[in-house]
Fold these 2 entries.
Entry 1:
Amino acid sequence: MRIAQIAPLHEAVPPKLYGGTERVVSYLTEALVEQGHDVTLFASGDSITSAKLEAFWPQALRLDPTIRDVMAPHMLLLEEVRRRADEFDVLHFHIDYYPFSLFQRQPVPFVTTMHGRLDLPELQPIFSAFNDVPVVSISDNQRLPLQQAAWQQTVYHGLPEDVLKPIPNVEPGYLAFLGRVSPEKGLDKAIRIAGQAGMKLKVAAKIDKADRAYYEEVIKPLMALPHVEYIGEIGEHEKREFLGNAHALVFPIDWPEPFGLVMIEAMACGTPVIAFKRGSVPEVIENGVSGFVVEDEISAVAAVKRLSTLSREKVRGAFEARFSSKVMARNYVAVYEDLLRQKHRTVLREVNAG
């Protein structure tokens, strides 16, 4: 099958540091290539892939201080994909609702994975106006606010099985927090949970400009507590050591998290997750197997005391069964095949072979 993957231009594919969407696009693209598909990746020029790279912008927009209007490159990207659409069997977008209007007016099947939160009121009229445009959710919970959308499937994110592995004979000595410093991610709660459980908390987190004031006012004073160690933003190659040596990942979110890639990154390392029951958490974490799903800080502290009842081998097994990139790619191919059937189209490669 000839597949176009269209990534956001904010980060490279895969991103150098933080960037969940671009990381998932990378994992999906590589798994599709490995499964024998002809894949073209539209992304920034500093991306690395075994697919055909259409480097639409020289480098990731976040790393280019000269860019002030980040929408302008994306508009040009959409037009370029439209001009070349008939080269592909299916177009797979990862740039929110931006393709809806333009691409529903052309015949090539396309689908958009919604990677972000969908409980914003301004999204309602968009998905009502485009209620026949095919979309994929990354958790069942994510799609709840937009019942009118043309949901095709829920496809969970996946990681390559070898990108993160358990550390043998580990003696975990701390709790881990990995993500962004922002109110909805709950770093303040993680610090309190670790303190009340009598454990050290290591924090690997990115601070966006928008959250700088929150960091200065709320988080920075807590970072001075003796049980907290702030490592900063880490890259892919540092995650195995960071997550693999942790007693658990603490994920005390206060928002409807659409998926939470860091949860399956921890699971890949055999590290259980203690997560608040919000958003996708109950779909991703099997309570009592890959971690504990809790309601509040008190129950999270109690869960820390019960971590010894979990098998790190079973945590890794839960990851392999449900959240590998192979599984993700197979599920997306099923979506692509459904779209082709709906449009009564055959695969270009098969036509050419005939």
Entry 2:
Amino acid sequence: MLAPMSGVTDLPFREISWRWGAGLVVTEMIASRELVLSRGESWARLKRAGLGPHMVQLAGREPHWMAEAARIAADNGADIIDINMGCPAKKVTGGYSGSALMRDPELALSLIEATVKAVEVPVTLKMRLGWDETSINAPEIACRAEAAGIQLITIHGRTRMQFYEGRADWDAIRRVRDVISIPLIANGDVQSAEDAAEILLRSGADAVMLGRGAQGRPWHVGALAGYRPPSRGEQAEIVAGHYDAMLRFYGRKAGLRHARKHLGWYLDRLAPAVAGDEKAAIFRSTDPQDVMRRMMQALAASTPPISREAA
């Protein structure tokens, strides 16, 4: 499964991952209140464009807005609603959403209950192990969430205070497996097929979710599931197609801005030896044709890195 990553797993990225074999892809986090009030990029994040099943992730801290947003999502094609209780970003937790909900299990359960009651489609939950090392409460919340009607749970094997530092604790995820009977998805630090096998073994989970390991290689989720990865030439075609899709999806000005981080990840993965000044020229250019010409030259001149992730 491809993890929901705000600012990363937009529709163009999800389309590539799905096309190359990802078992399930999830939208970027959508703020429930903003969706109901039609603010910001909420409706753009909701778009499906033929991908299925369409799994929509919602975030919020008030049961009313979560329920209303879930209804809107379901009415607009969502097959699954996922509740975000894992985002560690300060702008999210500062509003008592995301992983901050794990500090208040009663509020978290009220959101879960309201969302489940609002829609007929399955509702799932993504969270961390807890807020910090002194409050590892994922097993407790997971057990109560299942009783409230949640049909699948994803656990990122870190606390909120760890953000993305250190190593994810795959063994700790098993404590959730031990108290629920619904499907469990394990997430955190999965880069290779060996990692995927190990996290499944140690966590007892039913499936694996890949996040940062897919940056710069959106086909990698499917590759870990056993599908054929793209050849070097196909990778270049994916990069060019992804860039064009982002410009069409966001418009030229915004698309250029959104695309830069993806181009950087592609260069890091596929052309790590490219000179710094050439990277800078790619990022500075506002001419899409010039950007792609430079990217294709960089990819053509680079030998693919050999690593266990690529094996």
